[in-house]
Structure formats: C-alpha cells, structure tokens
Design goal:
Layout (H helix, E strand, L loop, with lengths): L4 E3 L2 H8 L11 E4 L4 E8 L2 E9 L17 E3 L10 H5 L3 E6 L1 E7 L5 E8 L5 E11 L5 E11 L2 H6 L8 E3 L7 H6 L2 H6 L9 E5 L23
Parallel strand pairs: 4-10, 5-10
Antiparallel strand pairs: 1-2, 1-7, 3-4, 3-6, 6-9, 7-8, 8-12, 9-10, 10-11
C-alpha cells in the first residue's frame, strides 16, 4: 500500500507547482501501476523541476537493474535505515509523487473484496512524500526512479484498506504548507512532516472492479458504485 493510484495531466501539475514548462506532455492516468513512468517533482538548486521517473526505486548500487524485491513503497519505520532508501534519505533526494487519488482494497463481512478510490476534499491535486535515486547501467546510461513513503493508516484507512499483504496502511500525504520543509529542511525537519493525513479530509468510495487490471485506464475507474464514506 499504496500500489495503484491516479495521476494528473502535465498542465495541471505545472499550474499547481508553478514550474516552468517542462519537456513533457501527458494525459491523466487513471490506473498508475508499479514500474510505469510517473510525474515527479523535485528541487534542483532551489528550483522546482518536473521529471518523469520509473515508479519503483532502483538503488544507485544496483547498476541500473531493478531489484528482485518491491521498491514502490518505503515504510516509514525503516526508510532511514533500509539499504535501498538510506542513501537517498541521507543525500536529501526527496521528491513529490503527484496524485489525484489512490486505490485501496476492502474485504467486507461476506469475504467480498472490492477496490475503493480515496481522495482529499481539501486538495484536488496532492503529493505523496517520496525519494528518488539515479543508478547507472554498465553502458553508462542512467536510470532515475522513485519510491513513496507509507505509514500506518488513519481511522479511515484502517477501515477501508483491510485487504492485501500490507493492510491498514496509507501513503504519506503532505500538506501544501509542508512541501518546503520536505524539499529543503534538515532530515529531522523532513521527518517531522511525515504524519497521517487528517481522516476528516479524506473521502473513500467503492469503484468498479475494472481497476484490478492496469490495462483499464479510463476516467470511469474513479466513478462511485457506492455511497462515499
């Protein structure tokens, strides 16, 4: 968790973060899946930069080859010490993984498993706190990739996201006012803004089972099939 989400189009990201037009053009993605190329915001010499990176961090020491273990989520409990993430953490390679919402799977009392779409009611476009890294292949070409941080779920997420191998968790969603500290703060200041997002500012509703396949990338994916929680 989080293993699937929705990302905005390039123009919306540029407006939200007031960044100089990038050499990218892409539509919204309503079913972002691991290993896909995703929009990332990072700070370079104090200037925000929009870049496209692989979702699933390839550590600098991996010589450009994806590890055999999953690196799409970095657990807050070990992000500062795990071999794949402690380097980017110490080097301050923090970034934002931009989203409109994300999916979580819920199993009800009858055993029926269904996807839910979770979004915010105070930010239409928001960001997961992430880390990025660059890893060089044998031929010298570099691969840039990213991971976002996850934590124990708030009251809403503990109820909604109760299925899968990592239930009851949620992405580390940043408040707008915490972006500066995440980009430019000390490690302690950056760590301090990694908090559970207010459950009262989050909305979840059941959506179509079509989202179970990443091949289904349409706006209808986020339409409710149940009343919002």
């Amino acid at each position: 968790m989080c293993g699937r989400y929705v990302s905005p189009d390039s123009a919306a990201i540029e407006r939200e973060f007031n960044i100089v037009r990038q050499e990218w053009t892409f539509p919204p993605n309503y079913n972002v899946a691991p290993t896909q190329t995703v929009p990332i915001i990072r700070s370079v010499d104090g200037t925000l930069q929009g870049v496209s990176m692989r979702w699933g961090l390839i550590p600098f020491f991996a010589k450009g080859e994806p590890p055999k273990y999953s690196t799409i989520n970095a657990r807050i409990e070990t992000v500062e010490t795990a071999a794949s993430y402690r380097g980017p953490w110490k080097r301050g390679q923090r970034c934002l993984q931009v989203a409109l919402g994300f999916y979580g799977w819920h199993t009800d009392g009858t055993g029926r498993k269904a996807p839910y779409y979770i979004h915010l009611n105070d930010q239409s476009l928001f960001a997961f706190a992430g880390l990025w890294d660059r890893s060089a292949k044998a031929d010298g070409t570099a691969v840039e990739s990213a991971v976002h941080i996850t934590m124990p779920g708030n009251d809403l997420m503990r109820h909604v996201h109760n299925a899968g191998t990592n239930p009851f968790r949620m992405p580390a969603i940043l408040r707008k006012e915490d972006h500066a500290a995440w980009f430019n703060g000390t490690p302690d200041q950056a760590r301090a803004v990694l908090n559970q997002y207010d459950a009262g500012l989050m909305v979840a509703h059941e959506v179509t089972a079509a989202v179970n396949s990443p091949k289904n990338n349409v706006a209808a994916n986020i339409e409710p099939v149940s009343a919002p929680r």
